[in-house]
Amino acid sequence: MPTVRYQNGDMVMGRWPGSNLYYEVKVLDFDAKSSLYTVIYKDGTELELKEQDMKNASGFQTRSRSRSRSPGRRRSQSRSPARTTRRSSSRMAAAVTTAAITDGVTSSRKDTRLKDSLEIRLSPLVSATAAFSSYCLRAYFWLLFLPAWVLFLVLQVNLEDPSLTNFPPPLPALEAFWDAQALGFVILWILFQALLYILPVGKLSEGVPLRSGKKLKYRTNGEAVSLAVAAAVHQGVDLTYIHSHFLQLTAASFLVAVLLSVYLYVRSQYAAGEQLALGGSSGNVAYDFFKGHELNPRIKEFDLKFFCEMRPGLIGWCLINFAMALAEMKQQGLDAPSYSMILVNLFQLLYVVDGLWNEEAILTTMDLMHDGFGFMLAFGDLVWVPFTYTLQAYYLVSHPNHLSLPAVAAIVTLKLVGFYIFRKSNSEKNAFRRNPSDPKLSHLQIIPTATGKSLLVSGWWGVVRHPNYLGDLLMALAWSLPCGFSHLLPWYYMIYFIILLVHRDARDMSECRRKYGSAWDEYCRTVRYRIIPRVY
Ligand SMILES: NC(=O)C1=CN([C@@H]2O[C@H](COP(=O)(O)OP(=O)(O)OC[C@H]3O[C@@H](n4cnc5c(N)ncnc54)[C@H](OP(=O)(O)O)[C@@H]3O)[C@@H](O)[C@H]2O)C=CC1
Ligand SMILES: CC(C)CCC[C@@H](C)[C@H]1CC=C2C3=C(CC[C@@]21C)[C@@]1(C)CC[C@H](O)C(C)(C)[C@@H]1CC3
Q1: Closest of 201, 246, 227, 225 to residue 310, by C-alpha
Q2: From the CA of 362, how far away is ligand 2's center (Å)?
Q3: Which residue, of 56, 122, 262, 399, is most buried by count of CB atoms within 10 Å of its CB?
Q4: How far from the centroid of its chain's Cα atoms is residue 233's Cα?
């Protein structure tokens, strides 16, 4: 029978998962079977913590307000363990962390370390409360804006002269959106993908450790699935239906995404502990619905987030592109698709097949590791990706753009350079996160952090802080160039992607700053640029 050190109702300090920061928490429950305490943080987040991640509040001292408010001073006085040395072994870093946390309350020098942790922890709670209402407003805005924007784009692409100034676009009658057959096809497509996903072929990969240290298993059989889809398409299904029913297929997918999000929201109300993401628990229905609260919603072994992100939308994207190539030949009376259409198809196919081939790498991306699964991702995966990432191919069906051979060669070179940077940098980080002592990575310099994880500071991740985004942006440029410069619409992906990646980078920077504290500052001082060397 385990001893129960803290009682229900006790106010103690609880470690924020994945960091060395302690927050004030109230003990709600103790589960003798798992030896885990259920605690609630001041912002309402409920989590399960091990006893070793909890301390008596009396052992902590806080700095005076004036001192903690001075960022300059804070920087100069920081004694965080992560700053002290640069070591080559992540195990050393883990040892430093453990020492700092477990002994911190007794010696005065170590007290300073804990005070530094507390100092960082106080600000996010205060600002979280202040920013709450603005977050809720933003959620309402995005819930309305995202579907309206997709509709706007889909209605523009068929126009002879698509333009932002065509606003509001001529709206079709309401019944034009609804087509039971289109809904049937969307459902069949998702079920077909689900069937391929559960087939016992391909690898079973482990995700990154959850807060409890447990690792979930994922079936990563994307390569087999892409071959199965290619074979099915080869059997001669008439895909031009997709071009002629694009609006109805978009509306049907939107309906599925909304139903899925409602289901995800409802089930997240019953999830607890490590099943939950750290966001999406504000209590505001719109915000939580949009953001999603459950981290890895699963029906038995079927992982809904992983499946939606990697299968129906992503493979659907290639299928739609291919359908557009057939529609172009039909509409323009061609024997073969145009060079522009071939380039757009091949480039994006390479992107998707690469994603499926390296499916395991997605397990270390932000969406899979940290974000809850709610409307944003469900809509993103099932509507946004297949129906807006295909706009370049759709545009070319009725807006031909002739490319000379030198132009083709230049665009292909750009795509390959982008792809090389994207793949190499993603694989490097993924390999390092999976096995930091991989001998193939032993030449890379690292910065140990107080969490036990280290940061790569040479190799691709020493060039800029997001080399993978740089490669991705170069590829995006290569996808738009074949469409020419007559309209802004085929450049939409490039513009959206710059905004998305700059925003993601900022979000990731503050998340990493929270997680790694001064080790992250040191990384940022060493690697000065975010995405483009010497520019940004
Ligand atoms: N086509 C599309 O629509 C989109 C494509 N993408 C692509 O998906 C890929 C994944 O992107 P995303 O998930 O945003 O971000 P990343 O794959 O860049 O993941 C960021 C995480 O990597 C870890 N990390 C950061 N710096 C270092 C370092 N120096 N050493 C070791 N680990 C580090 C941190 O996590 P931790 O320390 O916790 O491991 C950080 O939170 C990218 O290639 C991106 O371009 C992304 C969004 C949309
Ligand atoms: C609706 C919102 C405005 C934005 C939603 C964003 C999502 C569409 C993207 C978030 C991260 C994504 C990734 C890919 C597709 C787009 C989304 C879901 C990705 C699967 C594409 C293929 C790549 O190879 C990848 C690296 C596996 C990508 C991972 C991130």
Answers
A1: 225
A2: 10
A3: 399
A4: 30
Indicate whether residue 508 lines ligand 1 (CB < 6 A): yes
**pLDDT, tens digit, 9 for 90 and up, residues 90-143:** 333 333 333 232 223 223 333 333 333 333 343 444 445 555 667 788 889 999
Q: Is the CB of 461 under 6 A from ligand 1?
A: yes
Burial code (b: 16+ CB inside 10 Å, e: under 16) for 359-374 equals bbbbbbbebbbbbbbb
Q: Which atom of ligand 2 is nearest to the CA of 359?
A: 27
- Determine the distance separating the centroid of ligand 2 and the alpha carbon of 374, expressed in angstroms: 14
Q: Is 204 helix (H, G, I), strand (E, B) or coil?
A: strand
Q: b/e for 276-291, b at 16 or more Cβ within 10 A?
A: bbbbbbbebebbbbbb
Using a 6 Å cutoff on CB, does residue 426 contact ligand 1? yes
- Strand 54-56's sheet: what is its strand order? 46-50, 36-41, 22-31, 11-15, 54-56
Full-prediction pTM beyond 0.80? no
Query: What φ, ψ does residue 355 adopt, rounded to 5°?
Result: -60, -40
Rounded to 5 degrees, φ, ψ at 271 are -85, 160
Assess whether the C-beta atom of 23 lies below 6 angstroms from ligand 1.
Answer: no
429 Cβ inside 6 Å of ligand 1 = yes
Q: What are phi and psi of 232, to 5 degrees?
A: -65, -40
pLDDT digit string, tens, across residues 403-425: 999 999 999 999 999 999 999 99
Which atom of ligand 1 is nearest the CA belonging to 425?
Answer: 43
Dist. CA 278–CA 275, nearest whole Å: 10
Which phi and psi angles does 352 have, rounded to 5°?
-70, -45
How many CA atoms within 13 Å lie on the side-chain side of 454? 28
Give the number of the atom of ligand 1 that is nearest the alpha carbon of residue 453.
37
276 DSSP 8-state letter: B
The rounded Å distance from CA 202 to ligand 1 centre is 25
Joined together, the tokens standing for residue 360 give 């395991």
User: Looking at this predicted complex, what is its ipTM?
Assistant: 0.96
CA angle, 150 as apex, 287 and 268 as ends, to 5°?
A: 30
Return the ligand 1 atom nearest residue 208 CA: 39
Longest dimension (CA), the chain: 81
Q: How far apart are CA 267 and CA 201, in angstroms?
A: 29
Q: How far is the CA of 63 from the centre of ligand 2 (A)?
A: 42
Total residue count of the chain as it appears in this document: 536
Ligand 2: which of 144, 314, 360 to mutate, judged by most atoms within 8 Å of the beta carbon?
Answer: 314
Strand runs (DSSP E) across 406-512, as ranges? 446-448, 454-456
CA 365–ligand 2 middle distance (angstroms): 10
